[in-house]
Amino acid sequence: MGSFDLISSFEVEYAPVNVKKWKSNRTGLEVCLIAKESPSVSGWFALATEIFDDSGCPHTLEHLVFMGSKKYPYKGLLDILGNLAFSTTNAWTATDQTVYTLMTAGWEGFKMLLPAYLDHILHPTLTDEACYTEVYHIDGKGKKKGLFILKCREFNLSLLSLRFWRNKEPFIQSQPIDQRQEDLLRICVP
């Protein structure tokens, strides 16, 4: 596979599945293929996005990735192509990684959508306009808007949420809420 070396290959005893794992000798990228007969094809693409603060940058980036890419600079293109391929796309951010998922009805749809999907993940456009619409802006009526803000409001930093933030790092339990958390409160609470 070009610059990829096969590092593991095995059959699973309890199911008709073959698992293969490759690693790029140039970049260190690892690819795992689980070959199994199925009417659907799934791809999970995990990227290390660990940071050591509560700024929300990885989650913000997760949203911006879907706004366009270098080769496909169009918001909503993945949704349009996805409808043609009977697919779903999603993502989530954990403490140390962001995982982007792609699931299609069959290999043909996956093969058609994969180049655009990977370009969005690896080469997002990250424009100011996308940040305004997807992350944060104040509309003409002085209201805080943006998908990220709506998700913050869903989370609704109530007293229960504040306890989560304060208990996240035991050494700040007896300290006042730090500036970053105050900023989150200011943005997220209407």
From TrEMBL:
- Under the GO molecular function aspect, what terms does this record hold? metal ion binding
Q: Which InterPro entries match?
A: Metalloenz_LuxS/M16 (IPR011249), Pept_M16_N (IPR011765)
Short name of one Pfam family: Peptidase_M16
The segment(s) forming the Peptidase M16 N-terminal domain are 54-134
Top-level taxon in the UniProt lineage: Eukaryota
Question: What's the name of the protein?
Answer: Peptidase M16 N-terminal domain-containing protein
In its UniProt entry, the species of origin is given as Ogataea parapolymorpha (strain ATCC 26012 / BCRC 20466 / JCM 22074 / NRRL Y-7560 / DL-1)
